[in-house]
């Protein structure tokens, strides 16, 4: 009998303690002064709270930091910065493959390129693969082309003075017979370095003797197929008054396949094609 009364008393005490603890908990949560303390205390009791694990809290914190960084970037490019300045825009509105160098368009100072050596010549790195394709295509047709001259470095002062003196001597001899007109075309071989396409590495000469090359099967093949690989006869017959350079059958220039095919179809030289290109862009 005593054991039953003891159990009843313990059970009643347990109920009173549980009810008191629960009431105290809710009273503490309702009380602003104790609410923050109670929540921090509960954060250490996983069974009574749904708080995230430390890994989850770190992930949430990182997401929040990324959101803030998107709202406030670390740097902003000013509208007056060099990247957006109009002064940094290239003066030549044409792409590199339509770059023009000639008697009226000397190479500008500061122009640079990356040149690769192949088969004894140097060319602009961007035309090396098209040039290889051209030679392979000719070989498949039984025609073997041998590049003679590609990129040509500027001459030293001593070489330049000797060239100028020899040109003066030859010009004096010619002037005694019949003077040239001012707009007479110039031989491609006599162009100054800054007016020669060999200063750019975008052109290749396939012979040292233009007169004999003009009558060769290599020249005939190039006339027919060079455009398929992006190359054109840079100084064609009948365009001397536009190019300022006399007919040069050995000199072929890379302009890209699309431009070369259109120039061949319409019978245009580079100067004429650039003029049409600028009109289309406008």
Characterise this structure.
- With 282 residues, this protein is mostly helical.
- The chain has helices spanning 2-30, 32-42, 54-71, 128-140, 157-177, 210-213, 217-225, 240-243, 257-266, 270-281, and strands at 115-118, 121-124, 203-205, 231-233, 251-254.
- It has 2 domains: 2-71, no CATH class; 88-156 and 186-281, 2-Layer Sandwich (Muramoyl-pentapeptide Carboxypeptidase, domain 2), CATH 3.30.1380.
- The strands form 2 sheets. It has a 3-stranded antiparallel sheet. It has a two-stranded antiparallel sheet with strand order 1-2.
- A hairpin with a 2-residue loop joins strand 1 and strand 2 (121-124).
- The longest helix is centred in the N-terminal third of the chain and has 29 residues, at 2-30.
- The model is unreliable at 44-52, 59-90 and 160-182 (pLDDT under 50).
List strands and helices in order, with pairings.
Elements: H1 2-30, H2 32-42, H3 54-71, E1 115-118, E2 121-124, H4 128-140, H5 157-177, E3 203-205, H6 210-213, H7 217-225, E4 231-233, H8 240-243, E5 251-254, H9 257-266, H10 270-281
Antiparallel strand pairs: 1-2, 3-5, 4-5
Helix pairs in contact: 1-2
Features:
6% strand; Muramoyl-pentapeptide Carboxypeptidase, domain 2; 5 strands; 10 helices; mainly alpha; 282 residues; two-stranded antiparallel ribbon
Q: Element order, helices and strands? A: HHHEEHHEHHEHEHH
Distance between the termini: 111 Å
Oligomer: single chain
Helix count, DSSP H or I runs of 4 or more residues: 10
Strand count, sense and closure of the main sheet?
3 strands, antiparallel
Order of strands in the sheet with the most strands?
3-5-4
Bulk shape = rod-shaped
Radius of gyration: 41 Å
Percent range for β-strand residues:
5-15%
CATH class of the largest domain: Alpha Beta
What would CATH call the architecture of the largest domain?
Answer: 2-Layer Sandwich
